[in-house]
Write a structure and sequence with these properties.
10 helices, binds 5'-O-[(R)-(carboxyoxy)(hydroxy)phosphoryl]adenosine, alpha/beta, 368 residues, 39% helix, five-stranded mixed sheet, single chain, binds zinc ion
């Protein structure tokens, strides 16, 4: 669907990014060097939390409601007017179609009315290149070759990027649950509010993983694919056993004080987190045994995980690989990563036709 931009040359304007693939309404402005001038994310969590997950219909309505304020804030913070926008990048998928349609349609309309290039961006491409964004300053250039680990509530993906052509190939995906989904389900089971990953991570720091070990899922010895449903079931079973032994539910303490959590529950969360992260490291080791990995980018909501950040840094030292960890502020869904992925394509002279770009809930990388 991408086409060479006939007017290709060095891009000099500002890129407006739009991300509405799930429950965050986000807008960002980047300059031509990939400097993030603003990145505004409006969370809809208060709307979805009572339902324990994202309600698609409500998410689309909230995106429409939030957009005027979010886009105005992004432009104001960047000190940019609509007339300064030189390109628009919006997420086209994967995600919730109703949510995607809001952001994509807005992006198409803005690009069409301003008569500036349009880029329909794959959400994972946004995450994959987000470790190149800096908290202060121009983005780093795309390396010659890079392996990317994208870990979020919807994805557990191992990708490879050919820097010069920008081609992205998928090496492995999860066979069942995404890693963030597993964190959310375990957290939900112990009474934590959705999404529970960050809180499970924080509580896991207080437990002893050796006191509650879990097996690391292995598919076949030579496969890179991930699987998190087995670990999730093991952890849920272990929680049931703790409850049966204690005679009461393993739920978040009413006073929410860390010291009020039963020791066995903290140990279980620590054991679960260790096995979840160990599986990622196991697949990276397998990959490294097969082919050289000079550079690894780690991104997505779960890339905020403390243990994962420590473990991949150590892995890089052991394997002599350069590890690019996404800055914490760009871990979760945001529009800076979408504007940035759009900018990378713009630099290669790629654009999309705003009249025909369409939202899709699933998009294989071969369709990029
Ligand atoms: O990238 P993201 O914002 O949205 C998706 O594209 O899914 O990722 C959200 C996911 C949720 O599952 C959330 O619980 C998880 O990332 N998450 C974490 C941590 N922070 C967020 N999981 C584990 N440890 C964390 N520190
Ligand atoms: Zn995401």
């Amino acid at each position: 669907m991408s086409a060479a931009n006939e007017a290709a040359g060095p891009f000099e304007g500002f890129v407006l990014g739009i991300e509405t693939s799930c429950d965050d309404t986000a807008c960002a402005v980047l300059d031509a060097e990939g400097r993030v001038l603003s990145s505004v994310v409006s969370s809809q969590l208060d709307v979805h939390r009572p339902f324990g997950g994202v309600v698609p219909e409500a998410a689309s309505r909230e995106h429409l409601r939030n957009w005027p304020a979010v886009s105005a804030a992004a432009l104001q913070e960047a000190g940019v007017d609509w007339s300064d926008v030189g390109a628009v990048a919006a997420t086209r998928g994967p995600g919730l179609v109703g949510s995607l349609l809001v952001g994509l349609s807005l992006g198409k309309a803005i690009s069409y009315s301003l008569d500036v290039p349009f880029l329909a961006v794959h959400h994972l491409e946004g995450h994959l290149f987000s470790p190149l964004l800096q908290t202060d300053g121009a983005s780093r250039s795309v390396p010659e070759s890079m392996v990317g680990l994208v870990v979020s509530g919807g994805h557990t993906s191992l990708l490879v990027v050919d820097g010069p052509s920008g081609a992205v190939t998928s090496l492995a995906e999860t066979r069942d649950d995404a890693i963030g989904e597993a964190f959310d389900k375990i957290g939900h089971r112990v009474g934590l509010p959705f999404p529970a990953g960050a809180e499970v991570d924080r509580l896991a720091e207080l437990g002893d993983p050796a006191a509650c070990p879990f097996r690391v899922a292995r598919i076949k010895s030579d496969e890179l694919a991930f699987s998190y449903s087995g670990l999730k079931s093991q952890a849920l079973r272990a929680l049931g056993e703790i409850e049966a032994g204690n005679g009461h539910a393993a739920e978040a303490p009413a006073d929410a004080a860390d010291g009020s959590w039963p020791r066995e529950v903290l140990d279980l969360l620590a054991g679960f987190r260790r096995a979840a992260v160990a599986q990622l490291i196991d697949r990276l080791n397998r990959l490294c045994d097969e082919r050289p990995v000079e550079r690894l980018s780690v991104s997505g909501g779960v890339a905020a995980n403390r243990l994962l950040r420590r473990e991949v840094a150590l892995w890089g030292e052991r394997r002599g690989a350069d590890v690019l960890l996404v800055p914490l502020r760009y871990c979760g869904d945001n529009a800076a990563m979408i504007a940035h992925a759009g900018l990378l394509r713009l630099r290669r002279g790629d654009t999309d036709d705003p009249r025909s770009a369409d939202a899709e809930s699933r998009i294989p990388f071969s369709a990029l």
